[in-house]
């Protein structure tokens, strides 16, 4: 036993170290924006002082949906089927409304196969945090465009995208979503504060996070790097070769300002933080900001829309106060007398 | 003239959306209240208003509940099917027809009772003439057949509970019809109704309503559904009972109801409920089950309790949405991609609909797997005589779910997918408990629930799942056997065929053939089924479908030495099964096989 005093471990308000919020090692491509988001989830949950086992981690299918293994190892989770995480979450919520449901999804999951479920979860104001790790491509199937890919963006293979993208934030605001925010995987500070707020929100919180794919948005230059590898007789299968990148450098954009960010493929995106004069209760202003940003080829970030007045699904369901999970079996099954009475009523009708 | 008492079939041809259903139910209920064994079949269109509907009422002192072989009394109200309906009648049939329809009555070999139904109805209420027309023919039939006013009045009161003006209007309309028949007709047909002593008190009940009540007594905590014929009344049945049976004084419920955006979402919600430790159910029909396939596979592989009720209608595709069939069995048994096998429970009576309604949850939580209740349109939406419901004889079985910390800590070697007891059923902890949290997944996993692609892990997992479902066989509802000591031919059947089997048996017996019966009530097959087949020289599998789906399952699963003894009689035309058709097909099959 050492006499040295143990180094003080920083604890949160419920006396938990940050380690209690961590998960297993990531198997995503090194440098993936999704891993940065996982770290922000860990930070936000820790800073908010939520008991880790009272969080339910929900996801669909895709790179993003694998990430629940990489954070909150003390929480139960459900990696469901492609695009259908909202319905599973809704069913779980009906049984145990006291858990914090933290959903992580991708743009394939949310903007294509699962857009219907996303829309209806918003419509019900289902009480959950719904993070979209949005990179405009299908990563696990090796780089097809998703429905959020910007017009004119060019990925590793094939033609430039010419199909109108779906802006999930604009969609959500139009649907009356009660918490709509956009951020960037590299904006740790902004994303942390948005997620902390989302976790505290009663109702559906959509957090659309631009999270660049490090592997499948390579341009010709990168292609040359594949060729380079091949020419240099590195015995790697082309399709299996994943370039290693450093994670995006942290970037924080002051409110009302913009910054250009160079992505791994050399392209840039312009992030603009919505001005502090933006009124998040003004849905028209939020939509205007989104549309202006689209015209100017920018991405506007920050809390775009917020409405604390709308009842959430819990109120709509009209359930007893105790979560149904904890309602005893004899309360769930009416007594024999009740059935006898019903039988009699039927016989005498 | 010899009379024919309580042994004939009435066919009433109307258009849907005209109120004929309530008139027909009054006719059915009044016969029932006179103690006459009677059954009603509603052949309705997939439509809101204006398309042909037939209601078939069969009276049978023998207790036969299938529609008979022929129509004895035809009521003609609907012009659209008039000519066809009339042409189909056998000579000597009775026709009660609406003179005001301006349709020809060109059969001279039938007993004709023309009634100015529309005029009579208008005289009573010009505004509601269409509706009243239907009650008028009930009054006419009552007079012709001898249905008592007492029975009619009770049925009207039951149909329009507490609505005084509706009761008055309908009672007057019945009198109009009865008086018209009294004043204008001399009865020249042989068909009469006679009251029968009621030995066992019964009431009418639809299968869907009985399942719904069963679910309530099974402690259902989430109903997630998407409307589809013929299952909607099951979901609406649950919704209807909640305020009285599962709601506190503050109006708060212990069961959540969510009308989902589609069947996929409904299935997802049921899985979410099961994952969280609750009892979720969805009610649907074949097209819904088709859409739910992906989630069904997830529930099987990730071992999530979940209950699905399939009220079978005619497929494939949209099929005949308002007709009945037993054609989803194979899909339920092996739903979703990959190697799967699911538990299916199949009620054949309304009493069983109730019982399986609550039992489904117990089985699903016990085996941590999806459980399918298979009903059909005939059982689910038609009215059947019911002796009353029996209270569950066992407490709710919540399965191997660890809810207490000390029990969890006392467990050695916990793993979400570890076979601790050797029965293939693992233990589980629930989200929010903090006990042994894992990330549930539809991907391959090891006994600890961690992602794995290792050959040994996958092979062992698939074998355990197989053993688990296999182990359920003899704990599921056992087949019901009616064995004839002299018979060497067995008949296996299931579900709503129960209501026709007695008639089939009597038709066969009249030809000198005595058969034993085995009604299968669950999949995977109970070991009794194989023993039944072994006790008989030959076994016929009787089904309301084209391909003989249960027969296919039997052929694959029975030991080779008896596979050849099992033969299929499968037939479906959308109609509820008629005894003679199946009896004749059984005889043909026996003859073919014996050659």
Q: Helices, strands, pairings?
A:
The complex is a heterodimer of chains A (349) and B (595).
Chain A: H1 33-48, E1 55-59, H2 63-66, E2 77-79, H3 85-95, E3 100-106, H4 107-113, H5 115-123, E4 128-134, E5 137-138, E6 144-145, H6 168-174, E7 179-184, H7 188-200, E8 204-210, H8 220-231, E9 258-262, E10 268-273, H9 283-295, E11 299-306, H10 313-317, H11 329-332, H12 336-348
Parallel strand pairs in A: 1-2, 1-3, 3-4, 4-8, 7-8, 10-11
Antiparallel strand pairs in A: 5-6, 7-11, 9-10
Chain B: E1 4-5, E2 7-15, H1 20-33, E3 38-43, E4 52-60, E5 73-76, H2 82-87, E6 94-98, E7 111-115, H3 117-124, H4 129-145, H5 149-159, H6 164-184, E8 191-192, E9 203-206, H7 207-217, E10 222-225, H8 232-245, E11 256-259, H9 263-276, E12 280-284, H10 286-291, H11 293-302, E13 306-314, E14 320-324, H12 329-333, E15 343-345, H13 350-367, E16 370-376, H14 377-381, E17 383-386, H15 405-410, E18 439-441, H16 455-472, E19 480-482, E20 489-494, H17 498-510, E21 515-520, E22 522-523, H18 527-534, E23 538-543, H19 549-557, H20 560-563, E24 566-570, H21 579-594
Q: Brief overview, please?
A:
The complex is a heterodimer of chains A (about 350) and B (about 600). Chain A has about 350 residues and is of the alpha/beta class.
Q: Rg of chain A from C-alpha positions?
A: 23 Å
**Biggest interface, residues from each chain:** A-B, 57 and 71 residues
Q: Write out the CATH superfamily name of chain A.
A: Thiamin diphosphate (ThDP)-binding fold, Pyr/PP domains
Major pleated sheet of chain A: 9 strands, mixed
Give start-end ranges of low-pLDDT stretches of chain B: none
Order of helices and strands of chain A: HEHEHEHHEEEHEHEHEEHEHHH
Tell me the major beta sheet of chain B.
Answer: 8 strands, mixed
Total beta-strand segments of chain B: 24
Helix tally of chain A? 12
What order do the strands of the largest sheet of chain A run in, or round the barrel if closed?
2-1-3-4-8-7-11-10-9
Strand content of chain B: 15-25%
Distance between the termini of chain B: 46 Å
Question: Which structural class best describes the helix and strand composition of chain A?
Answer: alpha/beta
Number of DSSP-assigned strands of chain A: 11
| N-end to C-end Cα span of chain A | 81 Å
Low-pLDDT ranges of chain A: 218-241
- The CATH topology of chain A corresponds to Rossmann fold
How many whole angstroms does the radius of gyration of chain B measure?
26 Å
Please state the structural category of chain B.
alpha/beta
Q: Might you state the CATH topology name of the largest domain in chain B?
A: Pyruvate-ferredoxin Oxidoreductase, domain 3
């Amino acid at each position: 036993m050492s006499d040295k005093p143990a180094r003080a471990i920083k604890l949160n308000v419920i006396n938990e170290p940050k380690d209690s919020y961590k998960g297993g090692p990531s198997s995503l491509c090194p440098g993936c924006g999704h891993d940065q988001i996982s770290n922000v989830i860990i930070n936000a949950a820790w800073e908010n002082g939520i008991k880790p086992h009272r969080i339910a981690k929900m996801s669909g299918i895709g790179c993003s949906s694998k990430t629940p293994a990489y954070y909150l190892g003390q929480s139960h989770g459900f990696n469901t089927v492609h695009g259908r995480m909202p319905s599973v979450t809704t069913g779980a919520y009906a049984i145990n409304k006291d858990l914090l449901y933290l959903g992580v999804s991708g743009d394939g999951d949310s903007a294509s196969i699962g857009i219907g479920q996303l829309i209806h979860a918003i419509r019900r104001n289902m009480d959950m945090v719904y993070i979209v790790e949005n990179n405009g491509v299908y990563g696990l199937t090796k780089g097809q465009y998703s429905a959020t890919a910007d017009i004119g963006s060019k990925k590793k293979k094939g033609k430039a995208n010419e199909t109108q993208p779906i802006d999930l934030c604009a969609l959500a605001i139009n649907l009356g979503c009660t918490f709509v925010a956009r951020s960037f995987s590299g904006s740790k500070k902004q994303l942390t504060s948005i997620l902390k707020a989302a976790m505290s929100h009663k109702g559906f919180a959509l957090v659309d996070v631009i999270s660049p794919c490090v592997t499948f948005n390579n341009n010709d230059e990168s292609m040359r790097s594949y060729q380079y590898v091949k020419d240099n007789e590195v015995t790697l299968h082309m399709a299996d070769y994943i370039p290693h990148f450093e994670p995006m450098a942290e970037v924080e954009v002051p409110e009302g300002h913009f910054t250009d960010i160079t992505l791994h493929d050399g392209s840039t995106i312009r992030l603009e933080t919505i001005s502090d004069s933006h009124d998040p209760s003004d849905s028209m202003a939020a939509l205007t900001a989104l549309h202006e940003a689209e015209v100017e080829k920018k991405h506007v970030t920050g809390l775009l829309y917020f409405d604390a007045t709308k009842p959430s699904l819990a109120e709509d369901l009209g359930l007893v106060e105790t979560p149904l999970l904890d309602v005893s079996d004899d309360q769930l099954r009416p007594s024999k007398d009740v059935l006898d009475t019903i039988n009699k009523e039927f016989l005498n009708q | 003239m010899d009379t024919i008492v309580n042994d004939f079939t009435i066919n009433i041809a109307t258009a849907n959306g005209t109120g004929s259903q309530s008139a027909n139910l009054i006719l059915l209920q009044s016969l029932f209240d006179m103690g006459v064994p009677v059954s009603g079949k509603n052949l309705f269109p997939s439509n809101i208003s204006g398309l042909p509907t037939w209601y078939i009422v069969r009276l049978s002192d023998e207790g036969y509940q299938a529609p008979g072989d022929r129509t004895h009394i035809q009521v003609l109200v609907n012009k659209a099917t008039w000519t066809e309906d009339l042409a189909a009648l056998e000579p000597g049939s009775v026709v009660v027809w609406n003179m005001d329809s301006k349709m020809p009555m060109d059969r001279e070999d039938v007993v004709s009772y023309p009634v100015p139904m529309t005029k009579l109805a208008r005289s009573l209420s010009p505004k509601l003439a269409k509706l009243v027309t239907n009650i008028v023919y009930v009054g006419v039939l009552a007079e012709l057949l001898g249905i008592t006013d007492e029975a009619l009045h009770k049925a009207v009161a039951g149909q329009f509970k507490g609505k005084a003006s509706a009761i008055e209007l309908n009672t007057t309309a019945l009198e109009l019809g009865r008086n018209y028949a009294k004043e204008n007709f001399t009865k020249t047909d042989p068909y009469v109704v006679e009251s029968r002593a009621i030995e066992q008190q019964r009431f009418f009940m639809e299968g869907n309503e009985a399942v719904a009540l069963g679910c309530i007594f099974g402690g259902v905590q989430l109903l997630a559904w998407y409307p589809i014929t013929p299952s909607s009344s099951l979901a609406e049945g649950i919704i209807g009972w909640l305020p009285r049976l599962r709601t506190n004084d503050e109006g708060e419920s212990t069961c959540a109801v969510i009308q989902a955006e589609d069947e996929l979402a409904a299935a997802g919600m049921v899985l979410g409920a099961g994952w969280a430790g609750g009892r979720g159910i969805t009610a649907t029909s074949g097209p819904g089950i088709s859409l739910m396939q992906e989630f069904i596979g997830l529930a099987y592989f990730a071992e999530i309790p979940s209950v699905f009720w399939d009220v079978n209608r005619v497929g494939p595709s949209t099929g005949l949405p308002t007709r009945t069939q037993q054609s989803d069995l194979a899909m339920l048994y092996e739903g979703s991609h990959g190697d799967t096998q699911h538990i299916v429970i199949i009620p054949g009576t309304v009493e069983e609909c109730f019982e399986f309604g609550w039992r489904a949850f117990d089985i699903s939580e016990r085996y941590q797997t999806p459980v399918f209740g298979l009903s059909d349109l005939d059982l689910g939406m038609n009215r059947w005589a019911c002796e009353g419901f029996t209270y569950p004889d066992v407490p709710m079985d919540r399965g191997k779910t660890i809810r207490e910390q000390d029990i969890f800590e006392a467990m050695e070697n916990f793993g979400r997918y570890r076979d601790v007891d050797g029965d293939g059923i693992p233990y589980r902890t629930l989200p929010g408990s903090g006990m042994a949290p894992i990330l549930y997944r539809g991907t391959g996993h090891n006994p600890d629930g961690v992602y794995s692609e290792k050959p040994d892990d996958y092979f062992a997992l698939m074998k355990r799942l197989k053993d688990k479902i296999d182990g359920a066989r003899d704990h599921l509802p056992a087949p019901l056997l009616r064995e004839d000591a002299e018979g060497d031919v067995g008949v296996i059947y299931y579900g709503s065929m129960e209501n026709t089997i007695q008639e089939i048996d009597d038709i066969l017996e009249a030809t000198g053939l005595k058969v034993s019966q085995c009604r299968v009530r669950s999949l995977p097959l109970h070991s009794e089924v194989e023993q039944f087949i072994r006790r008989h020289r030959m076994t016929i599998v009787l089904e309301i479908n084209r391909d003989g789906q249960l027969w296919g399952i039997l052929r694959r699963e029975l030991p080779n030495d008896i596979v050849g003894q099992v033969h299929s009689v499968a037939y479906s035309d959308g109609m509820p099964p008629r005894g003679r058709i199946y009896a004749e097909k059984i005889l043909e099959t026996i003859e073919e096989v014996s050659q």
